[in-house]
Write a structure and sequence with these properties.
The complex is a heterodimer of chains A (112) and B (117). Chain A has 112 residues and is an all-beta fold. Chain A contains no helices and 11 strands. Helix content of chain B is 0%, strand content 52%. The N and C termini of chain B lie far apart (37 Å).
């Protein structure tokens, strides 16, 4: 049973375009939703995160949109650059010092 | 920011031998650390939760006698893969929350690539 479903599996975006990755979750006990970026051979690095009390959070070119009623959240990367080419994971966790449950990942390629 | 250091970054061992992976929180104390495993082109799967001063909690399907976890101090957790076999070849990543606080982001080490020949 996959607790966090992520799509698409892969994405190709032109330089300067907008990259959009979507995730959906089932467990209403989740209250923390981060996005991680991972380059080959490296551990995942936190990009941006949101909690259910807000519907949107923006940090630089990265924006999370959160829809609590639909149990969905998405990552938007504005003005996508070749350096953004990486694998992106959405995740979720419950309150407290609990582990993250990850989506299956999206391999983003930004082409010039 | 919080830093989680993992060592070694890669290791190659022969089948049947044991390998120890260290995970350190460099600028904070972590009572809890999480160990994940990632196969090529796949997601991160939680293996176990490491608790300082007590036994680790393992996820379903993870053999506790094969993957020994020791969290002897507030800044160090170790994962030992015992009697490693080729199917144990994977990317092992540890993580901890900054300042060990429950509402802090989860930070990951840079992982250990284990290859069992």
């Amino acid at each position: 049973q996959q607790q966090v479903k992520q799509s698409p599996q892969s994405l190709i975006v032109q330089k300067g375009g907008i990259s959009i990755i979507n995730c959906a979750y089932e467990n209403t006990a989740f209250d923390y939703f981060p996005w991680y970026q991972q380059f080959p051979g490296k551990g995942p690095a936190l990009l941006i995160a949101i909690r259910p009390d807000v519907s949107e959070k923006k940090e630089g070119r990265f924006t999370i949109s959160f829809n609590k009623s639909a149990k969905q959240f998405s990552l938007h990367i504005m003005d996508s650059q070749p350096g953004d080419s990486a694998t992106y994971f959405c995740a979720a966790s419950k309150a407290g010092n609990t582990p993250l449950v990850f989506g299956k990942g999206t391999r983003l390629s930004v082409i010039a | 920011g919080a830093v989680v250091s993992q060592h070694p970054s890669w290791v190659i061992c022969k089948s049947g031998t044991s390998v120890k992976i260290e995970c350190r929180s460099l600028d904070f104390q972590a009572t809890t650390m999480f160990w994940y495993r990632q196969f090529p082109k796949q997601s991160l799967m939680l293996m176990a939760t490491s608790n300082e001063g007590s036994k680790a909690t393992y996820e379903q399907g993870v053999e506790k006698d094969k993957f020994l976890i020791n969290h002897a101090s507030l800044t160090l957790s170790t994962l030992t893969v015992t009697s490693a076999h080729p199917e144990d070849s994977s990317f092992y990543i540890c993580s901890a929350r900054g300042q060990g606080l429950s509402n802090s982001p989860l930070h990951f080490g840079n992982g250990t690539r284990l290859t069992v020949t």
